[in-house]
Fold this protein.
Amino acid sequence: MPLRLSVIGTGYLGATHAACMAELGFEVIGLDVDPAKIETLAAGRVPFYEPGLDEVLARNIEAGRLSFTTSWEEVGRFADVHFVCVGTPQTAGAQKADMSQVFGSVDALAPHLREGALVVGKSTVPVGTAAALEGILAKTAADGVEIAWNPEFLREGFAVQDTLHPDRLVVGVRSQRSEDLLREVYAPVIAEGVPFIVTDFPTAELVKVAANSFLATKISFINAMAEVCEAAGADVTQLAQAIGYDPRIGNRFLAAGLGFGGGCLPKDIRAFMARAGELGADEAVAFLREVDQINLRRRAHTVDLAREVLGGEFLDRRITVLGATFKPESDDVRDSPSLDVAVAMSNAGATVVVHDPKGLANAERVYPHMTYEPDLMKALAGAELVVLGTEWREYRELDPATLDGMADKHVIDARNALDPDRWRKAGWSYRALGRPTA
Ligand code: UGA
């Protein structure tokens, strides 16, 4: 009998994991506590924007391999292996992760688990969580129930590709049996030659936060260089290109600009600092505070630059912000740098219109008082200043010579995504982060 899988939590991670595990040929059931989400998924629709996921989802529902439920009892009865993919957002008013969904779902699942079931954590958690959950399952679940930790490294916008063809698989296990079960689940991926790293619980948990901390540090490093470039009249994009040719440095994740946002990097480095503090290792990750601050300073600097371009005053000035999502090819606006800048300028008195190809509905939910315009040309009409905050392809491909209807031709390229010469030749004043003024 092939293994049957469940996926608990159907957000960006869980919905993708459920659909991709079905794509590998397993029978999969997805559970969420939100009945509206389950209804949408069961009808073959993805409740958020993730390129390519809708086809994989629909195909596997159609094939009868993928179903959805809100019933813990059904999930417990159905599956041999249960992937926990619920969110671990930042706790309101604190740095640490809010773990209520992880502990809540394991509490709810435990009494329904079959003998010998394997619970696999995929959520990003503070080190020590797997051991704590193991203790809970030992008291509340059937005999032989085990836990393993299998962190997820997928990027939004590439989630299907990253799940089916990851860079590596990491599993923290306590027994040969757990390892064997996970090798069976990932057999088609391992067969492609993907490295499969078997380790203990704390190492598996830490691999995830270490990876995200490194990525955040890389971005803040280049943004710190951008600050120095601004002071010295140098160009950070050329600097990044030049250092990136050194293979020890590498050219990826060196795009200077508005910095990192989203539901992962910002909250993960904060949760890591909080957890390291609890463990008495706060000095080891104190540099992450600087990484966070460099990142947030880019947003403040962009607002200052906009004020400067407008002659020192925001009141009643008309600004168009291009991009509401935290990065292109996603509709996710969680901790979006671009939206943050838009809101800050609006709060300072500017009349701000926000455009985004996919993220406006989510943006409106978080900031209902802002003005949103889904038509790009209408959004630009009357603007005294255009701020590019998310590098969507349709903004990168804009022809500055053909744009008209603005009140003035000022652009701030906060993602270094446009060609300065082209925009300047078309009569625009072009400013960017970490690049010379003219
Ligand atoms: C990130 C990691 O890249 C994934 O490996 C990880 O699995 C995921 O978090 C997670 O923990 O779930 P994601 O949040 O989807 O993935 O987005 P990234 O592609 O990492 O981008 C994060 C932010 O950094 C974006 O706001 C992006 O605009 C910014 N960024 C990225 C830069 O400012 N410069 C760069 O060079 C690269």
